[in-house]
Amino acid sequence: MDPIRTIHSRTVVMPSSNIDTDQIMPARFLTTTTRDGLGKHLFADWRYDGNGQPNPDFILNRSEAVGCQILVAGRNIGCGSSREHAPWGLYDYGFRAVVSTEIADIFRNNCLKNGLIPVVVDESTHAKLIATPGSLVSIDLEGCVLTLPDQSTVPFVIERFARYCLLNGVDETGYLLSKSAEISAYEARTQL
User: Fold this and answer.
1) Is there a domain that residue 1 lies in?
2) CATH number of the domain bearing residue 124
3) pLDDT value of position 130
4) pTM (predicted TM-score)
5) What pLDDT is stored for residue 14 in this prediction?
6) Going by fewer Cβ within 10 Å, which terminus of the chain is more open, N or C?
């Protein structure tokens, strides 16, 4: 996982509400225990037709989506089952943030643990982003601020420990391993 400070990117907009984890990463792709290559299966049932050919009407198959790191989704993205493969697929595709008015709790936590910034915004900000696909926006993780194309800013909340991990490019295990000398010293002091 790479450290994240600021993301400056155009947006991809998927205005549908209640995009569940099975739509993000269909169950037939859950057989892998690695993240690599899952981006090609992202939104597979929407992205490809019955013959496996790209659906030209789906946003990720259009040239304007290439290189975008911010997904703006309708209300309640990530509902449904708990599957880390959903954020793995988003990350492998190239997304580094998901913006919505509501992000399902388990999905939000899985995003935080896998290098994605879940940004919850108010209805007015969301409406602006939905209405202007491809907008150039910035997400400042250090300041927890989203900057819109008109340079207005919107604060967002990220839990402190998760923010620390994202800023430093470590997961929970990596954080614990970075404290191994302190843990060993404590254990040595408290041995009976």
Assistant:
1) no
2) 3.20.19.10
3) 97
4) 0.91
5) 97
6) C
